[in-house]
Structures are given as C-alpha cells and as structure tokens.
Design brief:
It is built from four helices and no strands. The chain is mainly α. Helix 2 crosses helix 4. The protein is extended. It starts with a helix and ends with a helix.
C-alpha cells in the first residue's frame, strides 16, 4: 500500500502529466495513429473522472482504490498496453448513442432558451 497522498501524486503524474506530454509529442508527428491513441485516452479519462467525481465519497472507503486507480491509469496511458484505444474500440458505438441523446437534449434546451429571449426583451422595453 503506497498511501493516499503518494497515490494521488502518482495518479496526477500518470493521469495528466505523462498523457499531456505524449499528446504534445503526438501533435508534432505526421502519423495520426498516435493522435487517435491520445484522443481516445482523453475521452476515456474524462468519462472516468466525471464518474469518479460523483462516486468519490463511496470510493474513498474502498480498500486499495487509489492503487487500483493508478494501475488502471497506467493501463490506459502506456502506449504498449493501448488500454484507452481498446476501450474506445470496444465501446465507442455505445458512446455514440449517449452523445446523440446529449446533443438532442442540448438542442431542446437551446430552443427553449431562444424561445424565451423575445419575451424578456419585450419586458425590458
């Protein structure tokens, strides 16, 4: 067990710093395969971070959670494992469905907000 603080530091390095550096390097190369690897990583990492934010109060009580998270981030980030790319290839069709639903929800929200604007403008005059 490496402890809460050390695992947080290592997760920050492995989860943010290394992928940010590798993404920077990938942008500079003409090869697009590495771009796909790192874009996949950031999508998976973003979804993971979003879910973790809401489950954090529970996960902090799970023994060795931070160590398991560290192993998961290593698997996602290290290019020889290609964990992020594997998750992306296995689950992007499901994600497409969720993205479509989210886009429809945003469009409905924008439409209702746009419909309310003229009423507000008339009240000010």
């Amino acid at each position: 067990m490496i402890g809460w603080w050390m695992s947080k530091v290592l997760c920050m390095i492995i989860g943010f710093m290394y992928p940010a550096y590798m993404s920077y390097k990938a942008i500079k190369t003409p090869n697009k395969d590495d771009d796909t690897q790192w874009l996949s990583y950031w999508v998976i990492f973003g979804l993971f971070s979003f879910v973790e934010f809401f489950l954090d109060i529970i996960l902090q009580w799970v023994p060795l959670y931070h160590e398991a998270k560290l192993v998961f981030l290593i698997w996602l980030a290290v290019p020889s494992f290609k964990g992020a790319l594997k998750l992306w290839n296995d689950h992007n069709a499901k994600l497409d469905v969720w993205v479509e639903k989210l886009e429809q929800l945003v469009k409905r929200f924008q439409a209702s907000a746009d419909a309310a604007k003229p009423v507000e403008a008339e009240k000010k005059e």
